[in-house]
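Exercise 7.
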Amino acid sequence: MHTASKALTALVMTGISVMVNASIALAVGPNIMVNNSFEGGDQQFKLQSAFSIANDAGDAHTGSWEMRANLTQSNNNAYQSFYVWKNTDYTSSIWYKGAGKLTFVVMQGDWSTKLATKVLTATSSWKQAKLDWNSGNSTSAIVACIDDQQSGGTVYLDDVFTGLTDAHDIGFDPHRPKASGFKYLIFDDEFNSTSTIDENTTGNDGFLWYTKQFYGFPPTTPSMYTVANGTLSLLNSPNNWGEVLHTAMPYNNSQGWKGTAFAPGQGLYVEGRIALLNITKENYGASIWMTDVKNTVGVDNGMPGNPGHIEGIENDIMEFDPHWWGTANYASTIHDWLENSKVDVDNDNTTICPPAGTDFSQFHTFAMLWVPASAANNWYGYRQCFFDDVPQTAICWKGNQTYTGVIPETKDSMGNYSFSLGDHRIFNLILGGSQTGNPSLSVDWVHVYAVSPSSKVVVGN
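Solution. The predicted structure, written as tokens, is:
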């Protein structure tokens, strides 16, 4: 987040009127790098001696953490590697200050080829270095800083960035969704009573949450959750997938479901204020996530342009499991399920790194912004995570295309088509908990904002 300029400008895109920082180049997409401002410590970065991560707000560009390079001309480096699309233009940048020189470089993922490079000469004022590069035939890239220029001096580095050069970041403000163009609050539960929950599994219209499960799982029972003092607490799950409460349920009609689902439409923002319980004992289930309704019920769930082939999107906004990610972070993953779940294409940058020392047993806001691909944004759609209103990593796709690659599909063959189906599907929102009997999470509230009220899809009897 560049704080050097406070000038604001308006960008109208995909029907979204937003306020963005004028110092941000509008022709660059959102940041796909993880822990990009180092607030999560050294997570997701590989550091050799000469480089370290420090918690000192006085030497940080934003936040309180930064990376330091104590220059010895050691040729040591600090880097992050990530997945990229082939033959695609990207822009990388980093902020730096201090005394001395080092090299800022983008390499192919196997370190074989330099894609772009620049020598940084630090001064006492923060400056930003930018590199434009093309991925060529590679599906992975490395952004690195190398101590190879001089001995002596310390350079401070912060806010490293990589985004699609031809994409657009709408500059969404999670503090003010309505002012950012997401002016319709299409779903809101403050959990002041159980009246919003179909506790007796009646299947009647009008509830926000349903206890009847998809996939033939047994229903959630009232013993598996409580509502008290304005919070919902999940105590157990009726199935291994951690699905406790859904905004939609299976139903014997032409659509195969009823309740409330959500279409990305012109833009969707989902947020939940959640405290995690029994953090060290959690097992997969503590989550807020979304599933593709058409794929779930098997109605009109084919892959566009490929008759007989099945495709569905799963959007996991937050999954917490210390057995997979430890207790310092969580996962936020999109799955592009293919061939009846035989093939799973998911995003590489799945780990979210909140500020070091975050206490997940306290309430925090876990959120997701979906900006669909459109002609106005060069057909580059994206989904960005937010933790406590701070933007985290993003996942991008290219819209307005039909998959023409090999069948069965692979991650490489899917390329920038991956996840784009999500622009055209509707999603069931789920609150998940553990099946181990350990209380999983407490929810203060859940909100869904949209650019258009048509993003709320309600099906009744």
